[in-house]
Structure formats: structure tokens, C-alpha cells
Amino acid sequence: MGERIVVLGGGIVGLSCAFELQTRGHEVIVLELKRCGGQASGAAAGMLAPYSENAEGPDDFFRLCLQSLRLYPEWQKTIREISKLPFAYENSGSLYVAFHEADLLAMQGRILWQREFGASAQLLDRGELLRREPQLSKEIIAALHIPEESHVYTPHYMLALEQACRLAGVTIQEDLERLDVMDWRNGVNIRTKDNRTFIGDKMIVCVGAWAQEMENSFGIHIPVYPIRGQICAYESNGKPIRHMIFGSQGYLVSKDNGTLVCGASEDVAGFDVTTTDRGIERLRYWNKKIVPHLDGQTPIHRWAGLRPATQDGLPLMGPLQHAKHVILAVGHYRNGILLSPVTAKIVADLVENKPGTAAHIEAFKPDRFN
Ligand SMILES: Cc1cc2nc3c(=O)[nH]c(=O)nc-3n(C[C@H](O)[C@H](O)[C@H](O)COP(=O)(O)OP(=O)(O)OC[C@H]3O[C@@H](n4cnc5c(N)ncnc54)[C@H](O)[C@@H]3O)c2cc1C
């Protein structure tokens, strides 16, 4: 029989968990302080890029990212079919560009280990690179091409995910402003600011960059911090770039609404989501080095979001030791869009006490900082 599940947080992690649990037969309610998709998830560039994001070597985090990339084709198809809302999901592949000979050795190393994990990675010389992407700078000497990486357009994807949740039967309560956890030791009891009560058998905590605020409730150390990402978009002006472009200072990705999205800063500014001239200028300086025709062009749109960073760079995913019916899924930092399907599967397996994917999450135990 299905259980009553309360999900705190309506970002991509909370909604993905809610969708998976509801479609497995549970009764799910999502409680959101503001609007679903209104924080980091709606601000993200939407890149699904485990190889480009994990340059160092294969570890548990890389494996988790890769597992999620491989779930995406089927997962997004289901969200599309159930929601009947359109969103772009593009298998564009990626290019990691190098300006210096010294970078090439590291790239060769990456090719070797990433090929073992299914990437058909190869190094393109300048001639081949410019043939494929004529808008890129002639100063770039080579690029690592990874055809397997993709991206979604997150503002549209979040709308579709929310709609899929609703149509699957998830109850969503937004604009709650404040929630008090009245009980989590013996079941789940959450009270809203206007004194409504929500009761559940299990609770999934998906509150992104705000997770540290739950420390007092659960009596454990939750070292999750907001890292602001400032990001901007230019008009493509009929000069599209087909691949996602990564470099040492950021990335560029073309969206099907005719914009080129360029990100992103990583700054500490508390919970402030405004952009600064300094932050955007830094992006502009780097963007024109990669794509010279951006020199002099002003971004048509600029925004910022708060990535949920953790002390050791790994997400907090799993049940509390002292209350197994409370499951944390926070701290996805730069890769929450990518990691959302695998997180949903892991959380649902944990709720149902199934071994499966949950066996690989030892490194992400939420109590590991105590
Ligand atoms: C500029 C930028 C670019 C990015 N690009 C990428 C990318 O290309 N690829 C990628 O994979 N990731 C990317 N990320 C990271 C990704 O956006 C995050 O990892 C992901 O969105 C985290 O999702 P979340 O659901 O945990 O958090 P959020 O989307 O922030 O959602 C958390 C929700 O919880 C709510 N909340 C807070 N406290 C409570 C409470 N007490 N009770 C109930 N609700 C609460 C908030 O209002 C919010 O809606 C990017 C992030 C930024 C900022």
C-alpha cells in the first residue's frame, strides 16, 4: 500500500522525487515556501554534462552523474508525454576548449578514463574545430569533443515537470512563506504559517540552498551554503553555436529561443539573487575571448540563482540515522538538473526499502558531518 509522503521544496529535486513517488503509487504532497521552480532550478543553464563537470577522474559522484545522464532520455520522454507541455532537450554534445599547449596533456588523460565510461571523447585540432564551430576564436588551439552530453531548457522543463506532477496526482501547496516541523521523530507533522497541518508517514527534504536552516529541526550538522551563480544571455543574431562550449572560466550554450546563455559566476553573497555589473562584466570579458563576435554585444537578459553547495562538494542524500523515515536530498551544487532523475529513483527506492540504486550512496550519507 502507498505511503503518505511530504516533500519539502518544489525545485527540480523536490518535484522529481514527488513525481517518481506518486507514479509508484504513493500519496505525495509538495510544500513550497514560494513558487515551484522559482529558485536555482529555474535559473540553471540546464547542461547535462557529467564528463565536462568531472575532469579529475571517476569517483562516486561522477558515477552518479553518469547514471543520471543515462536516465534522462527515458525520464524526459515520460515528463513530456504526461505533461503534454513542450521543452527543449538537445543532444548537442560539448566542446571543452584549450588555449594553451599545457592544457592538452590533461585533456589526453581525460580522454583515456572517460572513454572507459562510454564517452566517445576525441581531441579536435583548430582546423576541425573551426570547421564544426566557425564562430569560435582562432586563438583556441584544440577542443575535447564529447558527443554524449546534452542540455534542457530549464524554465520550460520546470513548467512541464510541475504539470506532470499535478496530472499524476501530486498535491502542490505554494506560497506557504513559513513552515514549522512540529514532529519528525514519530511520523511527520508540518504546520504552516496560517496554522494548517500536513501529516505524513515519511518526509523528503529538498530545500536546496536553504537546507542549513533545518539543522535545528533535526539536530544534525547540515553544511549547505548558497553560492550565487550570475548568468546572462545574448541574442544569437543568426550565428548559432551548435555545441555546448566549456572552458576554464565558464560555458556557453545555445537555446532554441534564439539566445546564447553564458555562465556563470560562483560568488558568496548570502541569499542575494541580484546580479552585479562586476559579475556580468567578468562573464562578458571571458565570452568574447571564446566567441569574438560577442565583443561589443550587450546581453539581453541577466539573472542569478543560488547553488546549494556543501562542505565536501558532494550532495547529502539518504535517510537520517536516527529517523529513517526522514530522507534528505540536498546539496546538488552545480549539477542538480543533471542529477534530478537519479535522485528521484534513489529517494523512491529508499522510501520503499529497496536495495537497487540506493546501494551506491554511502558517500552521500547526510549525517557524515556530525
Ligand atoms: C546560474 C546557475 C546555473 C546552473 N547550471 C546548471 C546546469 O547547467 N546543470 C545542472 O545540472 N545544474 C545547474 N545548476 C545547479 C542547479 O540549478 C541546482 O543544483 C538545482 O537547481 C538544485 O535544485 P533544488 O531543487 O535542490 O533547489 P532549488 O531549485 O533552489 O529548490 C529548492 C526549493 O525549496 C524551497 N524551500 C526552501 N526552504 C524551504 C522550506 N523550509 N520548506 C519548503 N520549501 C523550501 C525554495 O523556495 C525552493 O523553491 C545551476 C545553478 C545556477 C544558479
Would you list the SSEs in sequence order as H and E? EHEHEHHEEHEHEEHEEEEEHEEEEHEEEH
CATH class of the largest domain: Alpha Beta
- Order of strands, main sheet, comes to 6-7-5-15-16-17-14-18
Query: Any guess at the CATH architecture of the largest domain?
Result: 3-Layer(bba) Sandwich
Assembly context of the chains: single chain
Mean pLDDT: 95
Task: Please compute the radius of gyration using only Cα atoms.
Answer: 21 Å
* Associated small molecules: flavin-adenine dinucleotide
Description of the molecule:
By secondary structure, this protein is of the alpha+beta class. It has two domains: 196 residues, FAD/NAD(P)-binding domain (3-Layer(bba) Sandwich); 143 residues, D-Amino Acid Oxidase, Chain A, domain 2. It is 31% helix and 28% strand. It has ten helices and 20 strands. An eight-stranded mixed β-sheet has the order 6-7-5-15-16-17-14-18, sandwiched between helices. Strands 9-2-1-13-20-19 form a six-stranded mixed β-sheet, covered by helices on one side. Strands 3-8-4 form a three-stranded antiparallel β-sheet, covered by helices on one side. A hairpin with a 4-residue loop joins strand 10 and strand 11. Helix 1 runs parallel beside helix 7. The longest helix has 24 residues. The radius of gyration is 21 Å and the shape is globular. It starts with a strand and ends in a 19-residue tail after the last helix. The model has no long low-confidence stretch (mean pLDDT 95). The site of flavin-adenine dinucleotide has 41 residues, from helix 1, helix 2, strand 14, strand 18 and helix 10.
